[in-house]
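go over this:
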Amino acid sequence: MKEYELAGIETIARGVCTVGGRLLLCRAKGGATTYLPGGHIEFGETGREALVREMAEETGVTARTGRFLGVVENRFIQHGRPHAEINLVYSMEIDASPEDVRAREDWIEFEWRALDDLAAAHILPEAFNALARNPEATFEP
């Protein structure tokens, strides 16, 4: 079990990547909800480094982080237990065409969702729905 799992609080770097009015999202295969791509920040790395590393691991695509967009805190029940995450959010660009973004891990999948259809993606945390109104939204706890 990872140290962050023992604490029940995860620190995650997430990227906002829009191309042609569409937002890159990730989901667990068969899952009903989506989330911004990214992943856990490992000890000794920055949020920016974690986001670039996670994108390379999960898609094989080179990503570049841009502006820091803020922090989104989230509390929820997972597997019957209280859980929390702190999301560090960055703008992100990728060095690939949208069609080339494919999962390299068998438990996730990626999709490009039109910003005007973001509500249908059931994005979590719900604060990220602000991107439908403003793809350059910033986030404050």
Q: What stands out?
A: The chain has a mean pLDDT of 93. The longest strand covers residues 63-78. The two ends are 28 Å apart (CA to CA).
